Amino acid sequence: MTAAAQSGRTAQSRRIEHLSLPEELVLMLLNEENGYFHQVPGWKLNCAIVGAVLAELSLLERIDTDLESLFVVDDRETGDPALDPVLREIAAEAKTRNARYWIERLALRAESIIDLTLDRLVREKVLEHHEGEFWTLARTAWQPDPFARPREVSVGHFIRTRISNLILTDMIPDPRGVLIVCLVNACDVFRFMFKLDDEAEERIEFISRMALIGRSIAEAIAHNASGPLLRRSHLTKRIPTIRLPELLRSPHLRNGNLPALLAELATRHGPVYKLRVPCAEPMTFLAGPQINHWANRHGRMYLRARDYFADFEQAYGASGVLPSLDGADHFRLRKAMAPAYSRRRLQSQVDQLYRHARRYMAAWKVGESYSARRMCRRMINAQLSPMSVSVDSQDIFDDLMKYKERALNVHVLRVLPELALRTPGMKRRAAAIDTLLSRVQSVHTPAQRAGCPRNLADDVLGLNASDPQLVPESNMRFALSAALIASVYLGDAFSFAIYAMASRPEHHARIRAEADALFGKGDPDGDAFTREAVDVTQRFVTECLRMYPIVPVSVRNVMNTCVVEGCELPVGGRVHIAQTASHYLEEVFPDPFAFDIDRYLAPRHEHRGPGYAPYGVGTHRCLGFRWMELQLMINLLMVAHHFTLEVDPADFRLRFDPLPSMKPSRKLKFRVAERIREPKV
Predict the structure, then answer these.
(1) Domains of the chain, with CATH numbers?
(2) Distant-in-sequence, close-in-space partners of 335: CB < 8 Å, separation ≥ 6
(3) What number of CA atoms fall less than 13 Å from residue 4's CA on the CB side?
(4) What are the tens digits of pLDDT across the range 431-460?
(5) What are the residues whose beta carbons fall under 8 Å from the beta carbon of 551, sequence distance 6 or more?
(6) Which long-range contacts (CB under 8 A, 24 or more apart) does 524-533 make?
(7) How far is residue 43 from each of residues 31, 82, 103, 133, 566, measured CA to CA in Å?
(8) pTM as predicted
(9) What average pLDDT score do residues 255-261 get?
């Protein structure tokens, strides 16, 4: 064996030796097909995690147990933040209790233990964390034996191999092996991981009974998992209900600032509350940084997107598109589509972006005023349409946009009846989707795409050809129009950014300085937009997305009953996660109504945490947010380099149109005050 291979194997072995039982349990529960845990019922998972902590403390000789009690034998801290709070709580209890008591009492700590465990596994490079709160096992190269070739394995693979040897052979298990078999068996996931016959199942039960503490923990988990619903009523609190008169008193409702309104209600009533308005079902809202953190880490266990989105996707004749998928198929499709929405893809094609942006800006006339919403949406679509699907769609863009907004209002927000989507005007606009599909298919033949940079349509059509079940032909109308739908969201974000720049001369000057430095000697390549080169512009855009988030609320349905911030969310209910409400909470962003780009400088870094969430939360967080940020910055820099725009009228007070997504009111206009440079096409 080479020295390098021996070193790699030693590092691998040392890493496994230092894993705690909670870490081993998390790795055993991880399902790499969907990037998350095997679906263990919430209370059972909580009990298993706490059981793993108690078992680890037992192995470290901090606690011991007998048939009747669990007691501390050494109260010295272990140095592990997941273990020490539990040890302190047990040590502080005057009366001796049994294992079942401590599992029941400590079960509510499980989510914080899981968070600490995941963070440490990522930090130790055992797990890899992916955008959208997915995890996969990190790969480590080592040579298993002197005659084998080096190969890529993982700590998780090593642990599974060890466990499979224990349950499928006659190997004598060590105490740690006994405990991890006991814990995984209590979660009832061995059947998803291995093909078990009667003999293997008998051996699992035999091993699970070998350690006294293991038996105590397994019995406690089995008993507690049998009836968690019976205990929830006295563990949860009533969800406060807010009625229409209180809403009408808020100035944020009158100016359409939905995130500020939801933050105001969360400050007054807590992170979970209901809104009750006449002639509508009560709506449950979740708001605040703790909610965002919970949704990121644990939402997949309890929430799903399919229910609320199904009717909307059917308006396009689709089923199972990316926003409506959950579980393994969502993970697969997200991974497959990630390159199409990546910042790297845009960086490789910035020359196209420059050309399309300049062609659009060339028509601006000094002294003329333009509708902010229309101008910015169409400028973004002038870039996204040819870059993503290889066609010009400006002539049908308005129809596509209006149909999408009507479908959202009917099927997602439910503020309009279904009949509103079947009017003659809407049927005519729906035909624009087929026009777009026909145009895209006509130019995406192998000969016509030869030598062209790969784009979104290439990826979608390629997936349809290689995996027609994951991306069926029936989903093409939605998938290929998604880029143009993105023009609405990105265009509205752009209009807010232009408003913020035009109304703040001091920031305008600093952005123009960065633009002139980048474009002064010709067009920069995609790698030129470094953090140092666009420091002011990037912080400016970050603050715009905080103050003016385009999608302030995410809708989900509860698929497993759960308790969030002390409130029970029953199965089948619909919840509205107000992820951007924390943008206007004083404890997250001090003086939240002040436009302050220095929030994002050290040591403040106010955006580093779950409170900053302009792209959504959890597994459905916007896949293309890095592309969006770069395109937004480049467009802002190009406008500053070529023009001076002013808000029209000059004393305009920004108001919002919040449905179906946040955008400035139609009254906002931009006046072209000065052409500094001709945008040469």
Answers:
(1) 3-230 (1.10.3630.10), 258-675 (1.10.630.10)
(2) none
(3) 5
(4) 999 999 999 999 999 999 999 999 999 999
(5) 489, 580, 614, 615, 616, 661, 662
(6) 524/350, 525/347, 525/350, 526/346, 526/347, 526/348, 526/349, 526/350, 527/347, 529/347, 529/630, 529/633, 529/634
(7) 19, 18, 11, 21, 14
(8) 0.84
(9) 97
